[in-house]
Amino acid sequence: MDLTKYLSGKISLNDFVHRINQSGASFHVHYWGVMPRHYDNQLHKHSFFEVCFVVDGEGNYMDEQSSYTLQKNTIFLSRPGVLHQIKSEHGLSLLYVAFELIDSESNESWVQIMESAEKCEKIVLYNDSETETELLWKSLLIQATRHKQHFFEEMLTNIAGSLIISILQDFVPDLNRNNNHKHDPEQHSVLLTQARLYIHDNLSNCLKLTEVARHLHISGRHLSRIFMTELGVSYSKYVQDERIKKASMLLKRSDLSLKEIAEETGFMNVQYFTRVFTTMMQTSPGRFRTMFIDIHTTTYSDT
Q1: Which of 60, 79, 227, 236 sits at a 20 to 30 Å CA gap from 290?
Q2: Per-residue confidence (pLDDT) for residue 189, from 0 to 100
Q3: Residue 144: CA atoms inside 13 Å, Cβ hemisphere, count?
Q4: How far is CA 284 from its chain centroid?
Q5: CA distance readout (Å), 300 to 8, 155, 254, 293, 295
């Protein structure tokens, strides 16, 4: 990876990406760095986090009294208030970013995550293959070197936010545990969203549990469990409620006949539609429509 072609990207990042708000966290980025050849620097410390990624080369990283070997694909973390130093006889190709959490604009869980980052024991990570962090960093630099276009700043900020969170996931075990804990509910929520959209857009169809589950590539039992776990209602009750909800809207806003509304909302005939609607709404479809028309007529007359 030739870093010289990304020097213009470094300029764009330092021009446009200073503040990142993502996932309940607000970060201030002090600077972005692209260094084709980095040799020695002085022993020093920061009041913020600095993360470096070794694109190529060899060297050493000093962190207080500890010394670590640096090589290609190494990522290392400099913590606030900790004396550190980089040394390399032949030079290192480095990418780096310096940032800190804005506590007052972030939720408490992020404050705790950053406190954990300050105390993390594993500050140097060696990788044999490309990681998510490396791929995000490359993607960010590629985007930053392109000519400015619509949503240029927004795209850079979004990728940069993902990069910083990925970096923190590399070093903070608690953040990974939180994500693993939330994995299954998030997957269920995606399936629930897909199921609800499918039901909403196909209410005139039969919508058997097994057919909708097959559309989502899951079992009927799994789909049923998702509705009970996340919404607290059975699948059949949810579908029926959606049918009646749409029927109510059509009765209010359209001139469709009861037969047409029954077909549009998936009821097998007008009699069955009327029976279900009356049970749920405590009034017949015809009376419901009349009441709504009466309300609008009265409102119109009064004005």
Answers
A1: 236
A2: 79
A3: 28
A4: 45
A5: 64, 50, 18, 10, 9
Q: Pick the closest to residue 24 from 88, 83, 111 (CA basis).
A: 111
Helix residue ranges, H only, 172-284: 173-201, 209-215, 220-231, 235-253, 258-264, 270-281
Q: Which of 100, 99, 97 is nearest to 34 (CA)?
A: 97
Q: CA 261 to CA 247: how far, in whole Å?
A: 6
With contact defined as beta carbons under 8 Å apart, do 170 and 75 qualify? Answer: yes
- As given in the structure block, the two tokens for residue 28 are 């201030």
Neighbours of 219 (CB within 10 A): 13
Query: What are φ and ψ of residue 258, in 5° steps?
Result: -60, -35
Q: Using the predicted structure, report yes or no on whether residue 298 has a pLDDT greater than 90.
A: no
For 50-64, how does the pLDDT look when each residue is reduced to its tens digit (9 = 90+)? 999 999 999 999 998
Instruction: Work out whether strand 66-70 and strand 25-38 pair parallel, antiparallel, or are unpaired.
Output: unpaired
Rg (CA), the chain: 29
Backbone torsion region of residue 164, taken as left when φ is above 0, otherwise alpha when ψ lies between -120 and 50, otherwise beta: alpha
Helix (H, G, I), strand (E, B) or coil at 35: strand
CA distances from residue 243 to 37, 125, 154, 183, 237 in whole angstroms, order as listed: 66, 55, 40, 32, 10
φ and ψ of 261, to 5 deg: -65, -40
**Dihedral (CA of 126, 131, 135, 137) sign:** negative
State whether the Cα torsion 247-248-252-257 is positive or negative.
Answer: positive
Mean of pLDDT over the chain? 89
